[in-house]
Amino acid sequence: MTELQFGEPWFGIPWLDAILRILVVVGVMTFTVIYLTYGERKVVARFQMRLGPMRTGPYGIFQGIADAVKLLVKEDIRPRAADRWVFEFAPYATFIPVFLVLIVLPFARDWGVRNLTLGLFYVFAILGLNIVGILMAGLGSGNKYALLGGVRAAAQMISYEIPLVVSLLAVAMVAGTLDLNAIALNQADRPYVLLQPLAFVIFFTAMLSELHRAPFDIPVAESEIVGGYFVEYSGIRWSMFQLAEYASLWAFSIFGSVVFLGGWAFPKGDDWPWPWQLFLTFVKSLGFILVVMWVRATMPRLRIDQLMNFCWKVLIEVSFALLIVNGIFLYYDWPHELLALVNWAGAIALLGFIGARGARKARVSQYVGLYRREGVTAP
Amino acid sequence: MTIWPEEAIVRRHGETEFEFDTVDMTVNVGPQHPATHGVFRMLLTVDGEVVVDCEPYIGYLHRGLEKLTENADYRQAMGWWDRTDYLAGLNCEGAWCMAVEKLAGIEVPERAEYIRVIMMELSRINSHFMFFGAFGADVGSFGTSFTYAWRERERIYDLFEEVAGDRMFPTYFRIGGVTMDLPENFEARCRWLLGSIRQGLEDLDGLLTGNEVFVERCRGLSPVTPEQAINWGLTGPLLRATGIPWDIRKVEPYSIYDRLKFEIPVGTQGDVFDRWMVRLAEAYQSTKIIEQCLDEMPKKGLVLNPNLPKTLRIDSGEVYFRTEGTKGEYSVYLMARGGNKPYRAKLRSPSFCNLSALREMVIGNYVADAIIILGSLDIVLGEVDK
What we know:
heterodimer, A: mainly alpha, 15 helices, B: alpha+beta, Cytochrome-c3 Hydrogenase, chain B, 3-stranded antiparallel β-sheet, 12% strand
């Protein structure tokens, strides 16, 4: 078994090696999350013609740390109507799965906590647990907004998990392995986004939904249910939810960049030393995160039925069709170039379908002078 | 021993069909809620995600405007009227001034009329920008539309500050004219501002009108037929969105609106999307009106009637003065029985009448849609609660 692919254990002791690596990953994750919150505020502020945080340190770079300190010392309130144990354990149940995902992600060829031969499968399994904490928070808070948010989140995440998993399976079929490090290594000369663009589009859409990001942010809809499932949380427990949200954004970005963009391996990752590999991983994941923020800053929110329709009537069909096409191509051993061509056609067709529905339906000038043209008169 | 839900039902209700009883849930939206645009509360009864009943509660901002007005001098009362539609204070004080002028038969110098129209139309644009921003936030664009709209609002307020010394409640009009003449560079600044406003409108149009999600959310949502609109007493952009070209500035012109050329934008469906588009088109028309005023207005002249009495006393009479406010028909009823105070003052506030149709529009839609229908009514609570 290749239980330990990431080089020799540190100090020759496997358990000490595991603990040290976990500590490093947790440290990096905490730092990243703090700066992701700052980064999101800055990026979105730029989209909105604002400056964002500017006061705490030069360009507000200490804002994330100040926020973290503030959240740690705030009072932790538990509403009387809340179900005590469910309410208090919900943040952990949300956070732990995200953390568990980080264990298998390869940051560089020799750098991760542990590499599993079934890494991709492990990620699917663990991500499914995420919903438990959110549902716990929604039901345990004793708040109707939280209940609505929790139930919305449950419906949404269960639905979007299917296209997410199926699109990743399509890639796994092409790669011929479920080992994340091997998938990255396979892309040393061309990333899978070129071979499987349709899978990438489906993955990215479903990822936005799993992360509760706009335009799929209905479980936390600020203007409708005022934050959804974490509306009753405060202080450290609220920050656990935030931590989980940003950590999962980060984890998903690294995961997506490993599976589709070549992770640490493309370009030249296999030839050049580990700093280059780490750099590639971080640049690609930050690119992912930037696109997510960009979408958030510009897209309105879908309604629950439209969200479900899009998943069940479009994404699932397309992803299963993709799976079947991939299977046929691989079974008969037809060339990969042809498969890529079919995939590109599919991706363009899907985006075109969405784009055609979103085409501008009306212009302001149509509304002026309408009553003259159609002969409407004042009553 | 584990009790399964079916078993629990049997124990409670005896052997019946296995059907879960569902209970409608009441969700209290407001008075502190990001989507109620002020202190408005609605009690939604929801069946899952679908609204089955909606009970609006108003009055959190009631200040007794009419009673206060009856106890104040005609001139003093104006400050209260600013604070009804606080997004377009000048339209409200304009309505008040014009009503009193009509009642007392006071002439207004021509230059003052032009200044008033410019300021009122700027206020209208300002109020519409507030709608664009807040409505975008309701639909969920995370404040981007808000900041887009805020840029122009800030510039309009800057101009107000230069003209009148205050931003939100300028109290710039007087019975018989306006307080003071425009500053020197007003025309140049105003023309620059108009360009900026058009740019802002284009930005908002590009951000939301062409957006797939926005179109999906708003098109065909809560369509209102012209008959319904008239029966419910809707006015303003809500009425025009149904296809009825009813604008007091055209059908019963006041001030100098009969000299100006502008169109009444109307929709066809009366749905939320049409309300959005009609308001966009209206803002463009307002910029046109301001441009005409800048071209045509006398460059010099009095801005306040010099023959005003020291204390305005009106013997007797009554007047009902209709204006096109930003939200609809903003009308003032005044009754005088001698003295320097009105005997009775009454405000027909458009937001209040439009809001009364909320229940009919909301029932049967999703919770998320209830929020944006409320947003599309564009209420301002100072005007609803008076």
